[in-house]
Structures are given as C-alpha cells and as structure tokens.
Amino acid sequence: MHAHHRPATVSEEEFLALPESMLKVELLDGEVIMAPSPSLLHQDILRRLVLELGLWARQQPNPVFVGQNPVDIRFGPDRILQPDAFVILGAVNLRQKGPLTRIPDLCIEVRSPNDRGYDRVTKRLLYAEAGVQEYWVVHLDGAMERWWGEGLQDAEQVGDHLTTPLLPGFTLDVRSLFPEG
Question: Exposed site from 20, 43, 61, 117, fewest CB < 10 Å?
C-alpha cells in the first residue's frame, strides 16, 4: 500500500480539539470513526438499561459510577472511544477535565444493524486489550450477548435475565429493555 493512499490520521491532541458534538465520534489508532446518529429505539433501550444499572449502583455499599454516551474514555494511546454505557466499580472524579482515563469494568454497546461488526469484533478486542472485564452487546432485535474472561473471549447469549458475578445482586430483565410492540 502506498503511503499517500492512507487516510489522513489525527493525533490525540487534534482529536480532543475537535468541536464538541452530540454525535458519537471515536479515535482509533489515528483514525476518526463517526457513528450515525442513534435511532430513537437505540436511545430508548440505552436509557432503560442505564436506569436499571443506576438503581442497582445506588444500593451498593461502595461507590459505583454508571455513565453513558457521549463520554470520551481513553483506552490507550490514540484510542478514545465512547461506549454507549459503562460501569466503573469505584469513585470517579466528576470534575476531571478531558477524557476519562479510568478503564471501565463493564462496557455496553447497543448495536445498530449497520455497524458491520465494528462494535462486536473490533470494540470487544480493544476493550479486552485495555482491561475491561465484561462487555455486553444489546441488539435492537431483542437479543443480548455477554462477553467476559481472558481477552473477553467467553460469551453467552443472554436469555430472559442477565446476571453477572461482576455486579453482585444485579438482575436485568432483558425484555423490559424493549418497548412493547
């Protein structure tokens, strides 16, 4: 491949200097990746999920932070990603400027039908490399996957209820994420 065919790459500094946007914009090894605006269904499912996690988090004896897109998280040099939702088991400095540098324990993506495997494959590997302990993928058709273990290689197709050793006492009724009809 000739050098002049490569897409122009962007440094972390340049990326962070881009104008703020409500769109999901990520930096992956110098390449800026823009996601299409999420659908209403995507937003609705995400909101329900974050609400459930938040209710669980408030009952925990130790601090738990539940965040949702758009939040820039630095997963490594030139890797600034925005999980749709994430959980950090521990306290977070809410006044910190710039991207979050703490790696979430759990990352969640609500998968658009047109993402061509970016969320499912690439992001799982990036998250695994950064030390994320668990990764959930919610599909808009109602299916859900949970990935965990070394390299986030262990997977299960979640049935009606999701539980995980990572979040003791948390149970998600998967069907409740999806509006009726």
Answer: 61
pLDDT in tens, 139-168: 988 889 999 999 999 999 999 999 999 999
Pairing mode, if any, of strands 106-111 and 134-139? parallel
Q: What is the pLDDT of residue 122?
A: 82
Cis status, amide bond into 70, omega within 30 of 0:
yes
Q: Has residue 15 been placed in a domain?
A: no
Number of domains composing the chain: 1
List Cβ neighbours of 20 (8 Å cut-off, separation of 6 or more).
none
Query: For position 160, which CATH number holds?
Result: 3.90.1570.10
Per the document, the length of the chain is 181
Instruction: State the pLDDT at residue 120.
Output: 58
129 lies in which domain range?
37-177
Q: How far apart are CA 170 and CA 173, in angstroms?
A: 10
Beta bridge partners of 37: none
